[in-house]
Amino acid sequence: MQVSWNQNSFPLQPTDRRTMSSRGNRHTLTIRHVQQEDFGNYSCVADNSLGRSKKYMEVSGRPGPADFLSPPWSRSTDSFNLTWKVESYPPLQEVRLLYRKLMMNETFQQPGRWHDVILTPAPRPPSEPLTHVMAFTLRGLQHSSVYEAIVQAKNRYGWNEVSDIFQFYTQRISSDIHSEEMQVASSTSRSGATSLHRTAPKSSAWSVVLLTTLLPILPWLVAPFGALLHGGTLFDRSKLII
Q1: Helices within the chain (DSSP H only)
Q2: 21 and 113, same structural domain?
Protein backbone atom coordinates (compact mmCIF):
# COMPACT_ATOMS: atom_id res chain seq x y z
CA MET A 1 0.00 0.00 0.00
CA GLN A 2 1.22 3.50 -0.85
CA VAL A 3 0.19 6.56 1.21
CA SER A 4 0.64 10.21 0.24
CA TRP A 5 -0.24 13.54 1.91
CA ASN A 6 -1.51 16.76 0.30
CA GLN A 7 -2.12 20.33 1.44
CA ASN A 8 -4.69 22.26 -0.61
CA SER A 9 -4.34 19.52 -3.29
CA PHE A 10 -0.53 19.95 -3.52
CA PRO A 11 1.75 17.01 -2.55
CA LEU A 12 3.61 17.45 0.73
CA GLN A 13 7.30 16.73 1.24
CA PRO A 14 9.09 16.27 4.58
CA THR A 15 10.76 19.37 6.09
CA ASP A 16 12.43 20.21 9.39
CA ARG A 17 8.96 20.97 10.85
CA ARG A 18 6.91 18.40 8.94
CA THR A 19 7.41 14.63 9.09
CA MET A 20 5.49 11.59 7.78
CA SER A 21 5.72 8.25 9.54
CA SER A 22 4.19 4.77 9.16
CA ARG A 23 3.76 1.96 11.65
CA GLY A 24 1.85 -1.00 10.31
CA ASN A 25 -1.45 0.33 8.98
CA ARG A 26 -1.10 3.60 10.94
CA HIS A 27 0.16 6.59 8.95
CA THR A 28 0.86 9.94 10.65
CA LEU A 29 1.62 13.48 9.49
CA THR A 30 3.23 15.63 12.22
CA ILE A 31 3.63 19.42 11.96
CA ARG A 32 5.72 21.14 14.63
CA HIS A 33 5.59 24.82 15.58
CA VAL A 34 2.47 25.45 13.52
CA GLN A 35 2.50 28.68 11.53
CA GLN A 36 -0.09 30.46 9.43
CA GLU A 37 1.31 28.94 6.24
CA ASP A 38 0.41 25.51 7.62
CA PHE A 39 -3.32 26.27 7.67
CA GLY A 40 -5.45 24.74 4.95
CA ASN A 41 -7.18 21.57 3.79
CA TYR A 42 -5.18 18.36 4.16
CA SER A 43 -5.86 15.02 2.51
CA CYS A 44 -4.45 11.54 2.98
CA VAL A 45 -4.54 9.27 -0.09
CA ALA A 46 -4.04 5.49 0.17
CA ASP A 47 -3.55 3.24 -2.90
CA ASN A 48 -3.32 -0.54 -3.20
CA SER A 49 -4.17 -3.21 -5.76
CA LEU A 50 -7.88 -2.97 -4.91
CA GLY A 51 -8.28 0.76 -5.41
CA ARG A 52 -7.90 4.17 -3.76
CA SER A 53 -9.27 5.82 -0.60
CA LYS A 54 -9.01 9.46 0.48
CA LYS A 55 -9.81 11.37 3.70
CA TYR A 56 -9.83 15.12 4.42
CA MET A 57 -9.40 17.45 7.39
CA GLU A 58 -8.93 21.19 7.91
CA VAL A 59 -6.19 22.81 9.97
CA SER A 60 -7.18 26.31 11.06
CA GLY A 61 -6.02 28.92 13.52
CA ARG A 62 -9.58 29.96 14.34
CA PRO A 63 -10.93 29.18 17.83
CA GLY A 64 -12.76 25.96 18.48
CA PRO A 65 -16.50 26.05 19.27
CA ALA A 66 -17.48 27.19 22.77
CA ASP A 67 -18.63 24.64 25.35
CA PHE A 68 -20.94 25.78 28.17
CA LEU A 69 -19.97 24.73 31.70
CA SER A 70 -22.89 26.18 33.70
CA PRO A 71 -25.60 23.96 35.19
CA PRO A 72 -28.96 24.75 33.55
CA TRP A 73 -30.86 25.69 36.74
CA SER A 74 -30.39 29.15 38.24
CA ARG A 75 -30.48 29.84 41.99
CA SER A 76 -31.86 33.30 41.28
CA THR A 77 -35.25 34.44 40.02
CA ASP A 78 -33.89 37.27 37.82
CA SER A 79 -30.26 36.46 36.93
CA PHE A 80 -28.08 33.66 35.58
CA ASN A 81 -24.30 33.14 35.52
CA LEU A 82 -23.13 31.77 32.18
CA THR A 83 -19.71 30.07 32.06
CA TRP A 84 -18.07 28.61 28.95
CA LYS A 85 -14.67 27.63 27.56
CA VAL A 86 -13.04 28.14 24.16
CA GLU A 87 -9.84 26.55 22.88
CA SER A 88 -7.57 28.82 20.85
CA TYR A 89 -3.80 29.04 20.47
CA PRO A 90 -3.76 32.78 19.69
CA PRO A 91 -5.38 35.06 22.30
CA LEU A 92 -9.07 35.77 21.84
CA GLN A 93 -9.85 39.26 20.62
CA GLU A 94 -13.63 39.37 20.95
CA VAL A 95 -16.49 37.21 22.19
CA ARG A 96 -20.12 37.59 21.22
CA LEU A 97 -22.86 36.32 23.55
CA LEU A 98 -26.48 36.14 22.40
CA TYR A 99 -29.44 35.12 24.55
CA ARG A 100 -33.22 35.10 24.24
CA LYS A 101 -36.30 34.08 26.19
CA LEU A 102 -38.59 31.27 25.09
CA MET A 103 -42.29 32.10 25.35
CA MET A 104 -43.97 28.83 26.21
CA ASN A 105 -47.27 27.41 27.36
CA GLU A 106 -48.94 24.00 27.22
CA THR A 107 -49.59 24.14 23.47
CA PHE A 108 -46.76 26.07 21.78
CA GLN A 109 -43.18 27.35 22.07
CA GLN A 110 -42.06 30.60 20.44
CA PRO A 111 -38.56 32.12 20.77
CA GLY A 112 -38.17 35.83 21.50
CA ARG A 113 -35.64 38.18 19.91
CA TRP A 114 -31.90 37.77 20.48
CA HIS A 115 -30.07 40.12 22.86
CA ASP A 116 -26.46 40.77 21.80
CA VAL A 117 -23.59 41.24 24.29
CA ILE A 118 -20.02 41.99 23.09
CA LEU A 119 -17.27 40.97 25.53
CA THR A 120 -13.54 41.65 25.63
CA PRO A 121 -11.65 38.59 26.93
CA ALA A 122 -9.20 38.98 29.80
CA PRO A 123 -5.55 37.98 29.23
CA ARG A 124 -5.08 34.23 29.37
CA PRO A 125 -2.97 32.86 32.25
CA PRO A 126 0.38 31.30 31.20
CA SER A 127 -0.62 28.02 32.87
CA GLU A 128 -3.45 27.58 30.33
CA PRO A 129 -1.96 28.23 26.88
CA LEU A 130 -4.90 26.75 24.99
CA THR A 131 -8.14 26.98 26.99
CA HIS A 132 -9.98 30.26 27.59
CA VAL A 133 -12.62 30.14 30.35
CA MET A 134 -15.06 33.05 30.50
CA ALA A 135 -18.14 33.95 32.55
CA PHE A 136 -20.85 36.58 32.35
CA THR A 137 -23.90 37.22 34.55
CA LEU A 138 -27.17 38.02 32.80
CA ARG A 139 -29.41 40.29 34.89
CA GLY A 140 -32.96 41.58 34.60
CA LEU A 141 -34.34 38.19 33.59
CA GLN A 142 -37.91 37.09 34.28
CA HIS A 143 -38.64 34.53 36.95
CA SER A 144 -39.99 31.04 36.16
CA SER A 145 -38.74 31.35 32.57
CA VAL A 146 -36.73 29.42 29.97
CA TYR A 147 -33.84 31.08 28.09
CA GLU A 148 -31.38 30.11 25.35
CA ALA A 149 -27.81 31.30 24.76
CA ILE A 150 -25.09 30.91 22.11
CA VAL A 151 -21.46 32.09 22.03
CA GLN A 152 -19.05 32.92 19.21
CA ALA A 153 -15.35 33.84 19.63
CA LYS A 154 -12.77 35.55 17.43
CA ASN A 155 -8.98 35.57 17.30
CA ARG A 156 -6.61 37.04 14.72
CA TYR A 157 -7.49 34.28 12.24
CA GLY A 158 -11.24 34.89 12.35
CA TRP A 159 -14.48 33.79 14.00
CA ASN A 160 -15.17 30.25 15.11
CA GLU A 161 -18.37 28.33 14.49
CA VAL A 162 -21.36 29.31 16.62
CA SER A 163 -21.74 27.12 19.70
CA ASP A 164 -24.60 24.73 20.27
CA ILE A 165 -27.66 26.33 21.89
CA PHE A 166 -27.55 26.21 25.69
CA GLN A 167 -30.92 26.25 27.46
CA PHE A 168 -31.26 27.45 31.05
CA TYR A 169 -34.01 28.22 33.57
CA THR A 170 -34.61 30.95 36.15
CA GLN A 171 -35.90 30.18 39.64
CA ARG A 172 -39.61 30.33 40.46
CA ILE A 173 -40.90 32.79 43.04
CA SER A 174 -42.74 31.61 46.15
CA SER A 175 -46.13 32.83 44.89
CA ASP A 176 -45.81 30.56 41.84
CA ILE A 177 -45.12 27.55 44.07
CA HIS A 178 -48.04 28.45 46.38
CA SER A 179 -50.35 28.84 43.38
CA GLU A 180 -49.37 25.40 42.09
CA GLU A 181 -49.97 23.85 45.51
CA MET A 182 -53.44 25.43 45.65
CA GLN A 183 -54.23 24.08 42.18
CA VAL A 184 -53.12 20.59 43.19
CA ALA A 185 -55.22 20.75 46.37
CA SER A 186 -58.25 21.97 44.43
CA SER A 187 -57.80 19.24 41.84
CA THR A 188 -57.51 16.60 44.58
CA SER A 189 -60.69 17.90 46.26
CA ARG A 190 -62.65 17.75 43.00
CA SER A 191 -61.32 14.27 42.32
CA GLY A 192 -62.49 13.09 45.76
CA ALA A 193 -65.98 14.53 45.25
CA THR A 194 -66.25 12.79 41.92
CA SER A 195 -65.21 9.50 43.48
CA LEU A 196 -67.93 9.78 46.13
CA HIS A 197 -70.50 10.53 43.49
CA ARG A 198 -69.43 7.55 41.43
CA THR A 199 -69.46 5.11 44.34
CA ALA A 200 -72.97 6.10 45.44
CA PRO A 201 -74.79 3.81 42.96
CA LYS A 202 -72.97 0.80 44.44
CA SER A 203 -75.14 1.01 47.60
CA SER A 204 -78.28 0.78 45.44
CA ALA A 205 -76.90 -2.28 43.73
CA TRP A 206 -76.21 -3.90 47.10
CA SER A 207 -79.74 -3.04 48.20
CA VAL A 208 -81.19 -4.84 45.19
CA VAL A 209 -79.01 -7.90 45.80
CA LEU A 210 -79.87 -7.94 49.49
CA LEU A 211 -83.60 -7.59 48.79
CA THR A 212 -83.48 -10.39 46.23
CA THR A 213 -81.71 -12.59 48.76
CA LEU A 214 -84.20 -11.87 51.53
CA LEU A 215 -87.38 -12.36 49.48
CA PRO A 216 -87.47 -16.20 49.79
CA ILE A 217 -87.10 -16.09 53.58
CA LEU A 218 -89.42 -13.16 54.26
CA PRO A 219 -92.35 -15.47 55.18
CA TRP A 220 -90.19 -17.10 57.82
CA LEU A 221 -89.24 -13.72 59.22
CA VAL A 222 -92.73 -12.23 59.07
CA ALA A 223 -94.60 -15.29 60.40
CA PRO A 224 -93.43 -14.99 64.04
CA PHE A 225 -94.46 -11.34 64.12
CA GLY A 226 -97.84 -12.36 62.72
CA ALA A 227 -98.30 -14.71 65.66
CA LEU A 228 -97.63 -11.90 68.08
CA LEU A 229 -100.24 -9.75 66.37
CA HIS A 230 -102.85 -12.52 66.85
CA GLY A 231 -102.08 -12.94 70.53
CA GLY A 232 -99.83 -15.96 70.17
CA THR A 233 -96.27 -16.35 71.27
CA LEU A 234 -93.20 -16.56 69.23
CA PHE A 235 -92.55 -20.07 70.50
CA ASP A 236 -96.09 -21.27 69.74
CA ARG A 237 -96.07 -19.83 66.22
CA SER A 238 -92.83 -21.58 65.53
CA LYS A 239 -94.45 -24.86 66.51
CA LEU A 240 -97.34 -24.24 64.15
CA ILE A 241 -94.95 -23.53 61.27
CA ILE A 242 -93.00 -26.70 61.97
Answers
A1: 174-214, 218-229, 234-241
A2: no
* Residue 157 belongs to some domain of the structure: yes
Give the single-character DSSP code of 216: G
CA distance 66 to 151: 6
73 DSSP 8-state letter: B
Q: Is this prediction's pTM over 0.70? A: no
Residues 147 and 118: beta-carbon distance below 8 Å: no
Q: What is the mean pLDDT of each run of 10 residues along the chain (242 residues)?
A: 92 94 92 91 93 92 96 96 94 96 83 95 78 95 96 95 97 67 51 42 41 44 44 40 36
Among 33, 59, 85, the domain-final residue is 59
CA distance 45 to 146: 48
User: Nearest-CA neighbor of 101 among 144, 131, 70, 66?
Assistant: 144
- Residue 90 to residue 86: CA distance in whole angstroms: 11
